[in-house]
Amino acid sequence: MRVRITPGGRLEGRVRVPGDKSIAHRWLILAATARGTSALVEVPASLDVRSTAAALAAVSPKARPALQAWASNDAADAEGHSSTWNVRVGEWVPTPLEVEGEGRSGLVEPSHDLDCGNSGTSTRLLAGLLAASPFLTVLTGDDSLRFRPMERVAAPLRAMGAVVETTDGHAPIAIAGGGLHGIDHHTAVPTAQVKSAVLLAGLDADGITTVTEPAATRDHTERAIRALGGPVEVDGSTVRVERFQHEGFAGTVPGDPSSAAFLVAAAALTGSELTIDAVGLNPSRIHYLEVMERFGIHAEVRVDHVEVGEPVGELWVAPCDGISPTRIEASELPLVIDEVPVLALLASHAGGDSWFLGAGELRVKESDRMTGVADGIIALGGHAAVEGDDLVVAGGGLEGGLGDARGDHRMAMAFAVAGLAAQRPIEVDGMEAADVSFPGFVSTLSGLGASIEVVSA
Ligand code: S3P
Q: What is the mean pLDDT of the chain?
């Protein structure tokens, strides 16, 4: 799908974003392996989360009916919230997803390979879960997924006792699980996916499992295990777990702060004030607000409640009157790893050079975001360069033109938002990729007042 964004205008209103996909993957895995019933609300209808639900349906007979029905249901409202049309009240209402579980021992060998689609998180988290299950599973996915590194997750799971074979370091990954023992794992690169995979495996391993990271990453797995009563301890950069079987639980998935980042950027580039409700405010996910503050974008957050260990509340963005350049240090990069595309496009509108240091991991995301972002900025009339593992974006604004999403949801949305402050319209090819994490992105943005129209299907 190609869209055209015409610069200018003001955004106005209060908005919600679809549920957080990082949290949804984890809660679905925990629900399908709980003893008893879990009730989850606002599970996002994004493609990545559907991949996790469909894979869990294949290994969990008890959870299968609900997960299969949910994963193949197209019912989402225009803003991407998973909803059902309620005939009685005549409106869309959130669909709670009720998942039955029989504990981890209730999982069975799947009758087919598990297709994780575009989702690296599904693949790595499920690898951790299934490494503890005494049967054979094969995890695979689309072309982008089969290019992403999988030895980083296979190696620790092997060290715990599972038989894990990658395909030259990539998916398909074959796992013959069971009989795990704890290990002390030090991740070479900071990655929440690998940390979480090892922790999920550690919940069904003999002895103690620890993971130590070189820099902090998102901590949703730790929070969820703790909220369910599990033995998880955090000591500096080390997390420790032991065997634990949890019971069913209930929770509403907070809005995805990484999706909210695109709307915060859209507000900033149009000098608008905006409020986002019911959004996840986990500190390991909203570091981008500190970076934006350095850009001159002021936002305030207010936590109003906690869901399964996750703080949730309101995010308010003040009108912004210009972007200043900044430097993102290598130590903070893992905390903004998913926001680099939108931060880089914001930087292209700053009055000077911005640096993203130690950003090499961007090369192994859904696309090579290091070159994709730099090439995209140049194609839109701006200036950017890759210097080793650093990305430098020269400010001065964008002229306009055509941005190629390269099949990557976050690149598509970053280019679209950047169009709001370009000199001429920006067109984005591949806008449909947004459905991977933010179904309803185009209608949400246009509902707020942005001029974004579909040029071709
Ligand atoms: C995720 C972790 C991040 C992030 C991805 C989701 C997660 O990857 O890029 O979109 O849910 O754990 P890494 O921390 O593995 O780099």
A: 95
